[in-house]
Amino acid sequence: MTEQYGRHRWVVFGDLNWPSGQEPSSVPPEWHGWLHCIRDSSPATMDVAYPIYHVPHHANKTGTPLSYAPKGAWQNSSKRNWKKVHVWDPASAATSA
Q1: Contact status, residue 27 vs residue 35, Cβ threshold 8 Å
Q2: Degrees to nearest 5, angle at CA 7 with 4 and 8
Q3: How far apart are CA 16 and CA 23, in angstroms?
Q4: The pLDDT value given to residue 52
Q5: Residue 46 to residue 54: CA distance in whole angstroms
Q6: Residue from 29, 31, 36 nearest 5 by CA
Q7: 40, 32 in Cβ contact below 8 A?
Q8: CA distance 81 to 75
């Protein structure tokens, strides 16, 4: 046996215009099961029924200017424009209640 176990199935990406040339999250869940030998029948021969809550796939934008940057991250355009600590004023608390 000259092959490593589990190395007989692979993906040929159709769109190689991604910054790294390939994007692993573009493999649909139904093909993931076949690719990792969880099931033997390929989804091309199966009728896949999607649940009501199924949403279309969105590409992973990590490493691009469109990547997610949470509040306070250096990549976020509004870096640190909020107050972390607010001083409690008992007079304003009494009037607002």
Answers
A1: yes
A2: 120
A3: 8
A4: 92
A5: 18
A6: 36
A7: no
A8: 14
The letter for the amino acid at 44 is: A
Q: Which two tokens stand for residue 27?
A: 């493999």
Q: What SS3 state is found at 37?
A: coil
3-state secondary structure of 80: coil
The residue type found at 87 is V
Residue 68 to residues 27, 58, 64, 73, 78: CA-CA distances in angstroms? 21, 13, 9, 10, 13
Neighbours of 25 (CB within 10 A): 10
pLDDT tens digits for 16-70? 665 556 677 777 778 888 888 877 887 888 887 888 998 887 777 887 788 888 8
Gap between the Cα atoms of 43 and 57, Å rounded: 17
